[in-house]
Design goal:
alpha+beta, Calcium-transporting ATPase, cytoplasmic domain N, six-stranded antiparallel sheet, 51% helix
């Protein structure tokens, strides 16, 4: 409990004690009124000030105004009737503040829970100066600097391990409890905790661009992107509150005037009391507080599971996803390619691999890396010139003065080279040397261990259709799709073709159905932006893909997609439970108050009770471990 909450608790206790003492004090008249003003002002001065500021700023209709009018009116009725019973007026304000305290504590607790789950911001970085470690602000560490991470410390900045081996705790980032082994040459992500050995790390990013900073930025800014449900509640409160104030005014005036016209006693005090009770009941606290809290808790729960949702609007959209479209490489497959064979080559296989390695030497594509790794020798980049990448086809270059081309059958057709088809499953890189066909290299990628279960889990989560888009050959694409149980597959696509295919799928889906695209590469950014919901594989994904996406999976596990959908649907169900529960109870209590059955005591207890139950229900969205 923070200082402000402790102060409020003290005010509640003081006002409650004074109320009990004054109830039994044998004093009447204006003296009793003056004495009751003491606990009333102790507990309610801030509400009165807030209501006054609202009137001054022409923003009259809020909870503070309703509470102020209701309690001041209760004082006036007690004086008018000469009952001198001011207990109700003070108690209404007291119970309202108890509800506010509970709300403040609940919201604060949920924020603390989320902060603890996301407690990954490093306080310092160790830089070695003259053999001595100095702790510096991570913001001051430049790219390329060498930092030291000791056992038990958080990795402050993304980088590459130069020296040392260790186990890394990545649970704060990925939700994965198993430690990961790290060795020299491995990339290391900020926010992880070094468990065992001392590591020397060469930084590859500035602190502001590192993984930990981007995660915290995403979580902190998530609340600024409101869902349709939150917008509805905000608009509802702006319209609803003036309506109930005018209804209360009508309840206070019209029935007494009707009775007066028909020759009956108008009973002004009774009808004004009913109107004041109506005002107390009408406070939309439960809705205004619990709906944003539900989304906040849902985003926090997802973060704990290693799923970053950039806003409550995206959480709501995710709950409506019925079609999931996947990129293949790096998403459903590991993206780790290996050269399996060289076929139909009349020249020495090592020589063919040498030509291929030099042609691919300027590319960062996984296939290029696999060819260079298979060649296994240092590359002298001065031997290769005139490198030209042809999108969706391959690469041409001049190696040792000899024209060489490496690519698919489209490239061979473009160059007028007669190629030989390969019937093995895998990515086929055809080679042409000096304008003649030189054979082809067979490269294969492996399916991720969790990919098949991910597709099955997505179906269980309620997704109707799964689609795979890839630039790979049809044979490879169909083999992967069949292994994983994917409904539709489209192969040999350029990045622009993927966008067109997603647009076609968007045009044929239902109006209330949403389409999600899952990808990881820089060429997936346009498709991620075009889909209703973009999901990026965060740990290995490119910065462009992560920026374009609406949801980021921190450990590249496609099985997390089903979990993210289940989290979103749980959160949305809680939101609707609170909306229907709060509105239903409000309507019943408003009717009871209007006909004089509900007293002001019952009104405030119902209001506070509904708010407490709605908040407790909202906090359930934090707990996603068993989803």
């Amino acid at each position: 409990m923070n200082r402000k909450q402790k102060k409020m608790l003290a005010r509640i206790l003081i006002a409650a004690v004074l109320l009990i003492v004054l109830h039994f004090l044998p004093v009447t008249g204006l003296v009793r009124f003056a004495l009751y003003l003491i606990p009333y002002l102790v507990i309610g001065y801030d509400i009165l000030i807030k209501a006054g500021k609202g009137i001054k700023n022409r923003q009259v209709f809020d909870e503070s105004f309703l509470m102020s009018i209701a309690t001041i009116g209760a004082f006036a009725i007690a004086i008018y009737k000469k009952t001198w019973d001011f207990d109700e007026a003070v108690a209404v304000m007291l119970f309202y503040q108890i509800g506010e305290l509970f709300q403040s504590y609940a919201v604060g607790k949920s924020r603390r829970n989320i902060s603890e789950l996301m407690d990954i911001r490093p306080d310092y970085a160790n830089v070695e100066v003259d053999g001595v470690l100095e702790q510096v602000d991570p913001d001051e560490v430049e790219v390329g600097s060498v930092i030291v991470v000791q056992p038990g410390e958080k990795v402050p900045i993304d980088g590459v391990i130069l020296e040392g081996t260790s186990s890394l705790n990545t649970s704060a980032l990925t939700g994965e409890s198993l430690p990961r082994e790290a060795k020299p040459g491995d990339e290391i992500t900020s926010g992880c905790i070094n468990m065992t050995g001392v590591l020397k790390v060469q930084t590859s990013r500035e602190f502001g661009e590192s993984t930990v900073s981007r995660i915290l930025d995403l979580v902190e800014n998530a609340s600024s992107r409101k869902s349709k449900s939150e917008d509805f509640i905000s608009k509802f409160a702006r319209v609803y509150t003036p309506i109930v104030v005018y209804c209360a005014l009508a309840l206070a005036v019209i029935p007494p005037l009707f009775l007066l016209i028909t020759g009956q006693p108008p009973a002004w005090a009774d009808w004004i009391y009913r109107a004041l009770t109506f005002l107390v009941i009408s406070c939309p606290c439960a809705l205004v507080i619990s709906i944003p809290l539900s989304f906040f808790a849902g985003i926090g729960g997802a973060s704990n599971a290693g799923v970053l949702v950039k806003g409550s609007n995206y959480l709501e959209t995710l709950s409506q996803v019925t079609t999931v479209v996947f990129d293949k490489t790096g998403t459903l497959t590991r993206g780790v390619f290996e050269v399996n064979a060289v076929h139909h080559s009349e020249m020495d296989q090592v020589k063919l691999l040498e030509y291929a390695a030099y042609v691919e030497s300027a590319s960062s594509h996984p296939i290029a890396k696999s060819i260079i790794a298979a060649y296994g020798r240092p590359l002298d980049r001065s031997r290769v010139t005139d490198i030209e990448e042809i999108g969706g086809h391959g690469i041409t270059a001049v190696v040792d003065g000899v024209p060489v081309a490496a690519g698919n059958d489209k490239l061979m057709a473009q160059l007028g080279v007669q190629h030989i088809d390969c019937h093995h499953v895998g990515t086929i890189v055809h080679m042409a040397v000096n304008g003649e066909y030189a054979g082809h290299i067979v490269i294969s990628d492996t399916v991720k261990e969790t990919a098949k279960e991910a597709i099955a889990g997505i179906r269980r989560a309620g997704v109707k259709k799964t689609v795979m888009l890839t630039g790979d050959a049809g044979l490879v694409a169909r083999a992967v799709a069949e292994e994983l149980g994917i409904d539709e597959v489209y192969s040999e696509l350029l990045p622009a073709d993927k966008v067109q295919e997603v647009e076609r799928l968007l045009s044929i889906k239902g109006e209330k159905e949403k389409l999600a695209f899952v990808g990881d590469g820089i060429n997936d950014a346009p498709v991620l932006s075009r889909a209703d919901m973009g999901i990026a594989m965060g740990a290995l994904g490119s910065d462009a893909a992560i920026e374009a996406a609406d949801v980021v999976l921190m450990d590249d596990d496609p099985a997390k997609i089903a979990k993210a959908i289940r989290i979103s649907r749980k959160c949305i169900s809680i939101v609707y439970e609170n909306i229907w529960f709060a509105i239903g109870i409000k309507i019943i209590c408003l009717l009871l108050g209007a006909v004089g059955i509900a007293s002001m005591w019952l009104a405030i207890l119902a209001d506070v009770g509904v708010m407490v139950l709605a908040i407790l229900n909202a906090i359930r969205a934090l707990f996603v471990k068993n989803l």
